[in-house]
Amino acid sequence: MDVVFTVQDEGILNFCNVLERIFAHDLVERAGNTPDSAALWDFVVESTLAPIQQDIAYVNQMPQLKAGVSKARAWVRLCMEKQQLYDHMDLLLADRERLSYANAKQ
Question: Nearest to residue 88, comparing CAs of 68, 63, 59, 62?
């Protein structure tokens, strides 16, 4: 039985909010301002890894998604539906150099 996550799924929405806050945390620490809600998408979209790029391309083809936060949430849902969120996040977070650069940019 396939699991399908809907836009109204409150658990998924809360999970996305937590991920967005994690990726925007350093910005808040340094500037004392509100978090950049597109921080997760900005980090994901900079990936050069082929499996992640395929999902990014799929999300970017959705015309109803305009904001980075919407695209990040769609990407998370897509990865969860494909049961690849852990694998994708593991790949993204394994690149320590890129993580350091992302933190320095903020």
Answer: 59
pLDDT tens digits, 65-77: 888 888 998 999 8
Q: Which residue's entry shows tokens 């593991």?
A: 90
Q: Which residue do the tokens 């399908």 mark?
A: 4
Residue 59 banded pLDDT, cuts 50, 70, 90: very high
pTM score: 0.73
Q: How many CA atoms lie within 13 A of 48 on its CB side?
A: 2
Kindly state the DSSP code that residue 37 receives in the 8-state scheme.
Answer: T
Domain regions of the chain by residue span: 10-105
Asked if 71 and 42 count as a contact pair (C-beta separation under 8 A), the reply is no
Question: Do residues 59 and 78 touch, judged by C-beta distance below 8 A?
Answer: yes
